[in-house]
Each structure stands twice: as C-alpha cells, then as structure tokens.
UniProtKB/TrEMBL annotation:
<dbReference type="GO" id="GO:0003723">
    <property type="term" value="F:RNA binding"/>
</dbReference>
<dbReference type="Pfam" id="PF00013">
    <property type="entry name" value="KH_1"/>
</dbReference>
<feature type="domain" description="3'-5' exonuclease">
    <location>
        <begin position="26"/>
        <end position="215"/>
    </location>
</feature>
<dbReference type="InterPro" id="IPR036612">
    <property type="entry name" value="KH_dom_type_1_sf"/>
</dbReference>
<dbReference type="InterPro" id="IPR004088">
    <property type="entry name" value="KH_dom_type_1"/>
</dbReference>
<dbReference type="GO" id="GO:0006139">
    <property type="term" value="P:nucleobase-containing compound metabolic process"/>
</dbReference>
<protein>
    <recommendedName>
        <fullName>3'-5' exonuclease</fullName>
    </recommendedName>
</protein>
<keyword id="KW-0694">RNA-binding</keyword>
<dbReference type="InterPro" id="IPR004087">
    <property type="entry name" value="KH_dom"/>
</dbReference>
<dbReference type="GO" id="GO:0008408">
    <property type="term" value="F:3'-5' exonuclease activity"/>
</dbReference>
<feature type="domain" description="K Homology">
    <location>
        <begin position="261"/>
        <end position="329"/>
    </location>
</feature>
<dbReference type="Pfam" id="PF01612">
    <property type="entry name" value="DNA_pol_A_exo1"/>
</dbReference>
<dbReference type="InterPro" id="IPR036397">
    <property type="entry name" value="RNaseH_sf"/>
</dbReference>
<dbReference type="InterPro" id="IPR002562">
    <property type="entry name" value="3'-5'_exonuclease_dom"/>
</dbReference>
<dbReference type="InterPro" id="IPR012337">
    <property type="entry name" value="RNaseH-like_sf"/>
</dbReference>
Amino acid sequence: MASDSFPSVRAQVPQCSKPEDATVPVHIVTHASQLPSEFLNPSADSQLVVGFDCEGIDLCRAGGLCLMQLAFTDAIYLVDTIEGGDALVRACKPALESCYITKVIHDCKRDSEALYFQYDIKLHNVVDTQIAYSLIEEQEGKKRTPDDYISFVSLLADPRYCGVTYIEKEEVRGLLRKDPNFWTYRPMSDLMIRTASDDVRFLLHIYHKMMDKLNRNSLWHLTVRGCLYCRCFCINDNNYADWKPPPIPDSLVTEGYAPEEEILSVLDVPPGKMGLVIGKKGATILSIKESCNAEILIGGSKGPPDKVFIIGPLKEVRKAEAIIRGRFVTW
C-alpha cells in the first residue's frame, strides 16, 4: 500500500529544514486559476496526494477561515481565502470532497468543522497523521494512554518520520494568544508565510514513512477513523446519512479478519450536567476513557458545549454511552 509513485517532499527553509532537502517554491493563491488543474478537476486518471492544513481565527464552525495550505511534491500553495473570498474556497470544494485526492493532515477535526459549516464542504479521503501515529504505535505493541495524542511539533521532531525542529511554531502561538486576528492581516508577513508553509511542508514525507509502516488492518482503521474524525464536530440534521464511512473491504473478510464496525456517537448532555461528565480536573472523563476502548471528545470552549462525541468500535461506544448516561442518573 506504500505510494512509491509519489516521491517524498523535499524542502528547505531557515527554521524548519533537513540537510538533504531542496527548495520548493511557495505560491500565494488569490484566484483558482493559480492552482494546478489536476487539483481543481479531480480524476481517477490523475490521483493525487497533497498535504493540507487551514489557518484562521479560532478555527471551528464560527471561527473565520483565513488560509488553506496545500503541499504538492514540487510546490506549496497558500490559498488566501481573505483575498480570494468564497469563490476561491468553493473552487476547491470538488478536490476537498474527492475520493481521487488524498488529503494528508494532522488532526482534521476543527478544519473539517470550519469547512462544513462555513462552506458546506465535506472533507473526504483524509489521512490523519495523528491517527496514523497512534495506529503504528499500537501495531508495535505500545499501549497508548487516554488523551495521549501526538502534537504536530512532536511528530516533526520524531526521527522515525522527519527529525525536524519547528522553532517558530511556539512564537506564532504566542502571537495568536496576544492577537487572535494574526492570520487576517494582509499582505502576509514573512513569518506568516514561513509558518503556513512549514505546517504542510513535510506532510508528504511523513505520509510515505507512515504508509511503509502501516499493515493492511491498520490502513483500514486509518481510513475509517479519518472519516469519523472529519465529521466529528459536523453535527447535522440527517445523522450523517450523506457522509458515511467506507464499507469493510472484502479482502479483509476473506483473509479471516472482520473488524468490528466503528461508529461516531453524539451524546446530548442535559443542561448543567457537563461538569458531572468531566469531573474535578477532568478526573471523571479520564476514568471513563480508561475503561472504554473508544475516543471521547468534548466540544469545549469552541463548542458545541452540550455534547459528547464518542468514536470507536460499536460495543465500546455503547459502553461509554452507558457510563456517561449513568452520571446523569446518579447525580
């Protein structure tokens, strides 16, 4: 399943570099005509793998989308949604929803939420490197503790995948804390351009390293969980009827491996009861996570504040639902 037809990204910038890397151009895009035609017109004849990320103001359903970054093997495109407007984002909709273009992204949940609620874009065919990292760790027999999600900076630093230090990331985080409108300013500063580029610069390199490590079963889980994570915060009225995960491949069943169905459950929390679910300093929700083999997510400050999102095998999700509902009854 390794993608030998797509060479690793090679890049070099002052703050995020590898000795063997070569420079790739960075293009600021304000009109769809500046993007590669094979991206704008997805086709089974020219399937692509691209690194992808978004920047914005407190990015979520309500936070403003300011920039989309796309990393190809030979160039990086910074899609300026402020200068290009809605028309530019909508021109990217076929590609972002296409099964012919693989989008490699680290932690897709909030980016997907922003695209869905602001532009009616259902992010599809995602390889989430945060999920892939956890699956590889499980493959190698390492037990992951609840909430042990690798950060993008830590993933870049891991010598098995990249071995890169990301010096400027913390600087930008500090600037964002002081000024949440950081990504709205135009023209973009050199720091903005470097940071936006570095957020996708090595994603294809990491992708190929991960594809070489993942076995067939893990690849299946990566596909399903990527779909479920994309739609996690994208609550709609039809219970995701138009956004279904892929069916289990026949090849896994014939090989004697029939993985349990994995689902996303959205649990409504009665008004004033979320504190009972979370507990003092998060102790209750941590205990629930430790007792169930499922991911349990809470909207938090970005919302939605009255719901719990549970992702995992069907039986484990139902178990988590029962425990959480029990908190409402007993208190």
